[in-house]
Design goal:
Helices cover 45% and strands 16% of the residues. With 255 residues, it is of the alpha/beta class. The chain has one domain (35-253): Rossmann fold (3-Layer(aba) Sandwich). Helix 6 links the parallel strand 5 and strand 6. The longest helix has 25 residues, at 216-240.
Amino acid sequence: MSGEPTKPKPAGEVSPAQKPASGKPGSLPEAKPSASEDIAAFVARARAMSPHAAGAKGRLVFALDATMSRQPTWDMACALQADMFREAASIGSLDIRLVYYRGFNECRATGWISDSAQLAKLMGKIDCRGGNTQIGKVLSEARREAVASGVRAVVFVGDAMEELIDDLCAKAGELGLLKVPVFMFQEGHDAVAERAFREIARLTGGAWCRFDPGAAAQLRELLRAVAAYAAGGREALLRLSKTGSGAAKLLGQMK
């Protein structure tokens, strides 16, 4: 399908996409919940979803904005991605498909990766480059993979949105019909991005959560929680509540 990331031939290698989407988004007055409230809301939303069978292999699309402003968070995600595999390994297993965009009209997707060292090596070779957001391509790629090979969840980490929000909502609605939740993790306080991210999460049955710039601990908790959901659903999150991690403690407080 034109204008979307394409699956590479060899697993673990990347392949380019085509043309970007752009437009004038709307605006929203800034809301300022605390980071702990954001994370608690995410965990509560994930807990309410239908569980997957324990022990089954989960598939997670891990999407990142790799434009120039994202380098610090990209480096942080490189360091934290192994935690997702470790969390899932205690439940079943996890395959991750990395999707990222950067530069001028560049959006790439890897094959399915089941080894954290392989993903870390791949991510370590990628540098961030200036360019506009291409979230629409991420959603299209997630939909294609959901139909072709099954996807349990999508994670997106970014700080901006520069596309037509109605177009993104249409793509998000398709994922919602396929019962693929999108978890939108926003760095910073951009009001336009927040409006779009919240709506994408709502339409897919996922969740929106803000984390502070440079807050590795916050992002770690979020990624571990969504990996648990991808591998084992609600029951996995309930078991996670017994590990003593920050996200687990929040989950234990939910009624």
